[in-house]
Amino acid sequence: MNTMILGVFLLGLSAVKNLINISFNELLSLLSRVFEAIYGHEHDFQEMAQTVFWLESHGHSGTNKLIEKLPELEAIKNIYLPAPSIMKEVITIDCLGASLFANASLICDLAFSEAENNGIAKVIITNAKDSYALLGYLGSVCNKSLSSYLLTDKLSAFISPGSRYPLIYSASSCKKIELTCSKNKSLIDMSFIEGLDPEIDESKQKSFYELALKNGLSISTLNYEKLNLIADRILVPSTDASRLGAGE
Question: Which residues pair with 157 in a beta bridge?
Answer without folding.
Answer: 150, 168
